[in-house]
Amino acid sequence: MRTPRRQTLIHLAVLGACATAQAQTADAPNAQPVAEGSNVLSPVIVSGSRISARGFTQPTPTTRIDAVDMEKAAKPNLFNALADLPALQGSTGRTTSTNSTSSGIQGLSSLSLRGLGPIRTLTLIDGQRVIGANVTGVTDVSQFPQLLVKQVDVVTGGASASYGSDAVGGVVNFITDKRFTGFKANVAAGQTNYNDDRNATLQAAWGGSFLDGRAHLTASVEYSREKGVPSPRFGGAGANGRSWFKNPAFQVRPIGQTTDGKPQYISIENAQQFQYAKYGLITNGPLQGTAFGKDGVPFQFQYGSNGVPTGTGAVTGCITPFCIGGDLAGTVGGGTTLGMNMSRQVAYTRGSFEITPDHEVFFTLNYGKVDSLFTPNPGAAKNANLTIQCSNPFLPASIVTACAANNITSFQYGVANAIFPKDIEVNPVRTQLRAVVGANGRFDLFGKDWTYDAYASHGQNTIDINVDNMTLNARYNAAIDAVRGPNNTIICRNAAAAASGCVPLNIIGDVPIDPAAWAYIAPANGPRQYSRQRQSVASFSVNGEPFSLWAGPVAVAFGAEGRREQYYVLGDPYGNGVFPSSPNTPQYPADPLLNTAIGNNWYAGNYHNAEGAYHVKEGFLELNLPLFKSASLGEANLNVAGRHTRYSTSGNVDSWKVGSTWKTGVDRLRLRAVTSKDVRAPNLSELFAAPLVVNNTVNYQGTTLTVQQRTIGNVNLRPEIARNTTLGIVLAQPSWAPGFSASVDYFDIKVNDVISSLNAQQEVDLCVAGNQEICAAMDLVSATKFVTLQAFNLASMRNKGFDLEGVYRFDLGGMGLPGKLTLRGLATHTKSFVTNSGVVGTIPSEAAGVNLGNTPKWKGQFSQSWDTDTLSLSLSQRWISDGVYSNEYIECQTNCPTSTVTRPTILNNQMKGAFYWDIGGSYKYSKNLTMYFKVDNVTDVDPVAAPQTGTGYGINPFLYDVLGRQYRVGARLSF
What residue range is the signal peptide (predicted)? Predict the structure, then answer.
């Protein structure tokens, strides 16, 4: 039953009053101020703006995570601590996309604000762009140096005018300690209460000054290993005793049957795919329901739901493709890796030299390697799509006799292929090399002080994705089609296959697989993708206060930037296609069975070649204008910014920002507002997608046409255009509550011209509806008919909601107790998140509160911390509110309306949220040694079932903790 709105609000209010998140408002008074006498070479960092003038209060909300917060989180990877922040929704990590072979984002730790996706969140280091670790251009936080990060600023508002493309949802800026002196180290280890995902972290950093303090050098090295959760392979059990896995799924009735008043969708547990069994199942005809076990012995398959096979492929009492219960031995959903085996190796150094007291030059070098390994699914299930001839010599005699008795020569067959000796393993390895050189300083112009910052960077990310134990479809189909040959030997029926090395494969029952057959269908050189991305950036900016108005100095920042992005991707010949002009290599011999024109020969993991590049030139100007300053009215400023950008692919585009803050005359009460036009330029993958041509059919004006389906990139894509508005109230340490600060911000993000891809029929329908841009991508009249699949600027999104943030810190000395108590809280309420695909026949979808997705109605993080000089204890909570499977579903039990494609009916549309407790603490054993511990998910809350319409692993790792209770202990050294 859905939690009433009043109960939810009361729940949030109580938690917010007594606890808060591990974050604080960057511009709240409890943030550390910069001393008046500090060197201009250590400028004030304001991540939501390019203006670094003292006293400037930016209108864009920014959440700051400092080193103390990161230490208390005690995560093996800083990414995990940040992903828990309420405004970050839809971030990808090592527990997401583990059921995918070809997505390219596996093992990628990328941050996403507002559920808009990592491609609309700009992630920076020290305000600088970082080379992407994926063809979409998103960065991998795991490649960043982490021990030297002193704070992370999360700008929860559009920032394209300040930083350029991709800052639609906001900016995450990692700020390093450039003046660190001394030595520090961190050693930690942990595991889950299921005795898996054992992890270890080793980090060390050193910093020193030379030449009377004019030269400074810092360096850090890091290694961490999280061994992950191994696949339990087949059956209905979760990994290592995780009893919560119940094979959830949706049973979906055909729309035509929903005139009976019953719902179309029903969520079930113990879902049984009745189109295959662990070691084989006859799925159609008079022998339907015959399964095979040890040594190929046939037996009657136990269908769930008391189902009885009909001989037509259907099963009474079941809804294709699921029954409930029965023989679950062949279930594959639970065999997906819950957490990848991932290692990080990072080395970082920064050096600087003061040429004069006012001018400094610097360099940074960064090496980061992230190596992940996981199993997307066990075996390689074939869902009733195989044909076995009754003459197959591997069949038991009883089945051959039954074939003859029923006058059939073949039957349909489905199998999970549990006889395969090894499961599919996907191994993405990302290696980053990045170098930066730059200068900063100050100069005098017309009697005014100005500061400048300039840098040039070059980065390269090499991404190798290696997939092992993958089968070639054509070879598999040839190998299972066996016949008796000369001397009663068993050979492959296809003569061309036999001549090119085909070895017969027995998939009838639990029988040992022939190693030669396995080597034939799953060659050692499995799917491979090698890609290299390069980014070169040159940037220059100037800050100053050229003159003053009646209310104070006018601050200005301006600058220019140039950037070039380039990539190329190489797929293996079997996936990409061994083109005639390409010489065959020993590891990829010629094979008449394989498609040498378009590839796509693998069961999964068909990678294709692609390449492309573009360059960007842009300039920006930002002004901070004081409006008034008086004792009665307080003080206010106007912040405006504009950026003009020229892309080599899509031409010119402008972004801008207008904001204001008003420090009212009311005790420490401040109002802020900002609205901006933000952009996201199409990325390399969207512009230059790998070309692919296959045959397909479409319906055009009532006629079915066979067409060439040509998939390519679209160099005519335009930038996405967003309008981002934020209104907020900030109360910062009023006289009646010293130590207390809070803020409430309303946000409204509208994104138009969203880049999205369509299928062939959707493009044809849009053309018929009058979309001339899409009509230009097809020819349905000429002899050679084709439809070109490209990304188009068709969709739109709008996300609205509230951010709440607060902190209360007070000394316990007045109560006769040592130390200080800090209560913190952070929550995001997504009121609405509507997406309109722009596709004919669809309706806008509402994602807010859809717990199968990324944006729950409420996401909160709270903590309570007691700190003394030697001891620290903290208790924290993470909260996801109750939600639904889909806001488009109509919930009903009886008298349901007839379902439609856009508004299906469902028996129960409720999906529970989650509440997690974490506890941690540290003890300062000596001046140089601090020991600590952390327990996450103390009560071992199980992930909520996330049913799918097909085979899936039944959880949503974007919202829920899927690993269980986790223990970590460690020690920090400092000298």
Answer: 1-23
